Fold this sequence. Notes:
Layout: E1 2-4, E2 8-11, E3 24-31, E4 37-44, H1 62-76
Antiparallel strand pairs: 1-2, 2-3, 3-4
Amino acid sequence: MAFTENxxxxxxxxxxxxxxxxxxxxxxxxxxxxxxTEVTQTYDWTAVTHPAGLPRLPVVSADELDGSLTRLAAAVx
Length: 77
């Protein structure tokens, strides 16, 4: 998990009571000079080590990540 108020939020999904699977989502928020916020979303699966899970990676496609940012933009507009 990562959290810095108004700057970074990150999480590693997993099942309750179990270790996270090894992938992590992070959103980095960077204020811009024009008063807006640039949002960078990363999806990191480098910590996935379970052999059965490796062939399914990435779990989230580039289009799905883009859709996530599009929905975020619509929610705050």
